[in-house]
Specification:
alpha/beta, 5 strands, 8% strand
Length: 288
């Protein structure tokens, strides 16, 4: 229902009361601002009572105003431009206490992710990756940082990993050209969702590969293309995406797989430590 909320409001408009129409008019024109208003604040702004706002939510089929508000927030995560996101952030963030606001928000995203994560899907992801013939990791734009992090550690544990470079559509498809059954493609994307990632996952699905997605919710367009979907909460405190919870989920995935490959990973790191020592990769602590 979330993605169709604005259409729903337009469809039900003629049956709404006069006061409810005022709410509808405001939301249709200012859904970005309305999504973070309380029922009381929205009511005062358009000149109706808080109870009218609550009844408006019920008229649209929601159990209460918080559910309607959540639906609006899901819409803006996908629709807002960077400029609009910055404007929303300026209304939400206390400029005198930005550090606490942002870090507290990030902690909340991890908490919600932990509460909502599908643990069976997480375990199935671990098992699927461990049995893959080849592992392809794909993330575009801000999600490229997550893909790179996952690829770095997977390359220390597997010999069959490919981090797909995504500077152009043609280059991306050239790298996944030979996908086949038994291969695994891990696609990472958060609002605003990358068309290139969606196109690549569609190709992977058509090629018979197993598709694993890491995204923000079951409303994500990646989910319908996935054999397994892992979700982690993201948010737009500003024009910059908050990817703390997705990174934490990736961390858990790396740890879970390393525990299943403990002996092999140990041998790999023993060799790597010798190489790092020989080629002075890391700075040594000063001797006392």
């Amino acid at each position: 229902m979330n993605t169709n909320l604005l259409n729903k409001i337009e469809e039900e408009y003629t049956s709404l009361s006069k006061g409810q129409k005022r709410i509808a008019d405001y939301i249709l024109k200012n859904y970005d601002k309305a999504s973070f208003m309380t029922a009381s604040k929205l009511g005062k702004l358009v000149g109706v009572s808080e109870s009218t706002v609550v009844r408006f939510a019920a008229e649209l089929g929601y159990d209460g105003y918080p559910q309607l508000q959540k639906a609006l927030q899901e819409i803006i995560r996908v629709r807002l431009t960077a400029v609009q996101r910055l404007e929303v952030a300026s209304n939400r963030v206390d400029e005198e206490n930005i550090l606490q606001t942002v870090l507290t928000s990030d902690m909340e995203k991890i908490k919600v992710t932990l509460e909502q994560i599908d643990r069976s899907a997480f375990q199935k992801t671990v098992e699927t990756i461990l049995s893959a013939k080849h592992i392809y990791i794909l993330g575009v734009r801000s999600s490229a940082a997550l893909a790179s992090f996952l690829g770095f550690y997977f390359n220390l544990m597997f010999q069959n990993v490919r981090l797909v470079h995504t500077s152009s559509v043609s280059e991306m498809f050239e790298q996944i050209l030979n996908l086949e059954q038994g291969d695994v493609v891990i696609g990472i994307s958060f609002p605003r969702y990358s068309k290139r990632t969606i196109q690549a996952l569609q190709y992977a699905k058509d090629s018979g590969a197993t598709v694993i997605s890491l995204t923000d919710s079951n409303h994500s367009p990646l989910v319908s293309l996935s054999d397994i979907a892992l979700t982690a909460r993201s948010d737009m405190v500003s024009f910059a995406d908050s990817l703390v919870a997705p990174l934490s989920l990736i961390n858990a995935l790396i740890v879970a797989i390393s525990m299943q490959k403990k002996d092999e990973v140990t041998r790999n790191f023993e060799k790597l430590e010798e190489i790092w020592e020989e080629y002075h990769v890391y700075e040594k602590p000063a001797e006392e």
